[in-house]
Amino acid sequence: MKKLNLLFFLIICFTGCSKNESVINGRLPDASFDNEWIYLVPIKNASKKTVDSVLIRDSSFQFKLKPKKQNQIFILRVKSLLLRMDLQNILIISEPGIIDVRLDKHSMASGTPLNQILQQWKEEKRISDSTYYSVFRKCKKETSESEKAQYQSELKEISEKYQTYADSLAEVNKDNIIGQFIRSLSKK
Fold this sequence. Notes:
Elements (H helix, E strand, L loop, with lengths): L1 H17 L3 E6 L9 E6 L9 E4 L4 E6 L6 E7 L2 H4 L5 E5 L2 E6 L5 E3 L2 H29 L3 H28 L4 H10 L2
Parallel strand pairs: 1-7
Antiparallel strand pairs: 1-4, 2-3, 2-5, 5-6, 7-8
């Protein structure tokens, strides 16, 4: 009977302890990245002690994060600069649950609530930046002052639209790490 109680207690401990664990499951486009290291780098206070790494095998990798690493933003990246041309670094938030990551030219993360929000923000930011850069290039090439003024007006509109979106998202998420992160970008 004592052994049965001990076994039951251990099962509860192990399942209870793992509920707060973040698991990052990553996939890569193909096996050409096998045997390369992938790094999980905190965006704040990165050091040799806080950076984690795993070897890519069978076009995949996995990190298991303990509760002390919860509620932090990390960058997932490969070491080699040449590989970074094919694999976009990605921001992820450590929170309890399974975080699915696809590293590719346009990397994505999903699976947990905060990572879903972060992914939506990244996509909105990418579209805004791309549109801004396209109009900016046209503006730089333009010789007509009236056309330049029109492009500058468009640039201002693009910036304001994105800033309104970012401010709104930060406000809705003011009590979590996403709101803090987006607000920190706006202060720069």
